[in-house]
Specification:
Pfam families: Acetyltransf_1. By secondary structure, the chain is an alpha+beta fold. About 30% of the residues lie in helices and about 30% in strands. The protein has an 11-stranded mixed β-sheet, with helices on both faces. The chain is globular, with a radius of gyration of 19 Å.
Length: about 280
């Protein structure tokens, strides 16, 4: 992570661990007076690898000022993304001004655990293990395309993310785990070293995805537990961190496995318009 000689401290455990994982991918952090510029030069189309991180959203914030700052820092970008480094819910009046410009407020839950509980049995013929062969990684790309089939122009982004995951695993920063039914990859996730917090070594989960035809069959839960056990043993992690959309069912799964909610996380996002 590049930020001059100064060590940057984050209030949000979610953003802290997000950026710690991105640091394995060539992250650049550029502090400004009012915000931090978060860049992932190797993947400029990654919305949440290229964004502005503000300390918070004040009630009198002018959205146009934030947009002008984003466009100055990312003149080629078609997306607009702002992270909020505060667990406090943003003021409704400020959120409404951003929503009027096409933004969505993302409400996320940052969950942590030291140990994970029991999990339902795997389906017959299934196993969980780290990705190893070239075919495993090719299947990961196909899985990501199947999970995100509704997104336009997703292939270049997915290819770059798979390449970065492979490189991080080769460097020893973590591993990508898969749930295989026979030889077919049906679910996958990444787990990586993510720095320290209050003297505890952290491991952060990334991109828990299950093929649409194989959901609700215990694959994701088994992956989360097996990868977490591996991270505690092989990465030396004291605490596991995972982030879930509060409007998606994954949070309930993680809590059944033994995760507890540590804090909320907030973000403002506007995807590219169809005309872009």
């Amino acid at each position: 992570m590049t930020a001059g000689a100064k060590t940057i401290r984050y209030r949000s455990l979610g953003y802290q661990t997000d950026l710690a994982v991105l640091a394995h991918q060539g992250l650049v952090v550029e502090p400004r007076d009012a915000y931090q510029v978060i860049r992932t030069p190797e993947n400029p189309h990654f919305w949440w690898g290229n964004f502005l991180l503000y300390p918070s959203l004040a009630a009198d914030t002018d959205p146009q000022a934030w947009l002008a700052a984003f466009e100055q820092e990312f003149p080629q970008a078609q997306h607009r993304t702002f992270g909020l480094d505060s667990p406090l819910r943003p003021p409704e009046e400020a959120v409404r001004r951003f929503e009027a410009l096409g933004f969505r407020l993302d409400s996320l839950a940052v969950l942590t655990a030291q140990r994970l509980g029991p999990v339902r049995p795997l389906p017959a013929g299934a196993q969980v293990r780290p990705l190893e062969s070239g075919d495993d990684w090719h299947q990961l790309l196909n899985l990501r395309l199947a999970v995100n089939a509704g997104q336009t122009d997703y292939l270049p982004f997915a290819q770059r993310k798979v390449q970065q995951a492979w490189a991080m695993q080769q460097a020893g920063a973590g591993a990508y785990w898969g749930a295989f039914v026979g030889r077919a990859l049906r679910a996958a996730l990444g787990i990586y070293q993510a720095g320290t917090h209050r003297d505890e070594r952290l491991a952060r989960y990334q991109s828990v995805e299950t093929h649409p035809d194989w959901r609700s069959q215990g694959l994701a839960g088994n992956l989360v537990v097996a990868a977490g056990d591996w991270a505690r043993r092989d990465l030396g992690a004291d605490r596991l961190v995972i982030v879930a959309d509060t409007e998606y069912h994954a949070q309930a799964l993680y809590q059944r496995l033994g995760f507890g909610v540590a804090e909320p996380e907030w973000a403002l996002e506007r995807p590219p318009s169809p005309a872009d």
